[in-house]
Amino acid sequence: VIALAVIFFAPGALSGKTFYAFDTLSSYPPWREGAPEVNNSLITDPVNLFFLAAQRYQRGVRAGELSRWDRSILSGRSGGSSYLSPFMSFLFAVFPVTVAHDLLLFSYLLLSGLGMYGYLRLIKVDVLPSLIGASSWMFNGYCMVWFEFENVPGMAASFSLMLLSIEYWYRRQSLLGGLGMVGASALALTVACHHLLVFQFLFCGFYVLVRWLGEIWTLARRKPEPHKKKKRKPTAKGDYKLPALRFAGVVGALLVAILMNLPMVTGALGQVKPTEKSSSGKTAVARMGQRTGLSFDELLKNTGQLPKKYLLTMAFPGFFGGPIWGVDY
What we know:
By secondary structure, the chain is mainly α. It has helices spanning 2-14, 45-63, 86-94, 97-122, 127-138, 141-145, 151-172, 175-191, 194-220, 241-260, 262-270, 296-304, and strands at residues 69-70, 77-78, 321-322, 327-328. The chain has a two-stranded antiparallel ribbon. Helix 4 (97-122) runs parallel beside helix 7. The radius of gyration is 25 Å and the shape is globular. The protein starts with a helix and ends with a strand.
């Protein structure tokens, strides 16, 4: 697994390249003139968002401050740093942005493979199938398409680590398993990829539920030992304590991870849009900060007309709002 990750990164690292797609900037002025053709013009967010956020975080660390207000655009706009995990904070504080970015992606790729390999071995899968499963998860198509975006490979790593730690906890109930569940859940929360986070927690929740119900079913159908009476002995209530404690341990680990990441959790909940009716009368489903379809009337209302609250920004040259008025768009 380690060799696969090294082989994947070696060509770019040895040639001095980075996973930031800076060539996408050549589609726009002032870099357009005489620029080579862009390989993939769709992966602009890592350069326009992630790279700039990392630069802002690094400047703040060197200046001795971590401001949640981005002052680089006129009077500023809301721009709190997303680098909340100690691992990301360390990388982007110590190394240059491009080096820290590639080291982060390498770490995520390696952790996703090692976590999945450990999980498959823990559930008694042989070595070769475990290696195939781990490599398939490391280089799955969805993760490779969005690899430069930091959050998708981060979620892939946290998912395999969550499965590994949950299964380890159920088999051994050790402190290592409990800390692993807390760490993997905290990693998933700090990655802050909200739509993937919902599906990942749902999957792991159903996984834990199936494991718990399986234990209950096994206890309910338990047969007496051969040397005892043939009459089936009813299961005592105390026998159900261990499955209950295992289930409570998983829930407790998740709660600890949430408490460790309250700023990120509250920020994610703040992006949940209430269910509203569109102009066509159809009910729109609540979404977490995702793009939704708009009719032409709604598009004109939302983008073609200037809302009254934005007129306040004309009082000073803060076109994108400011902390005085609490306006930010």
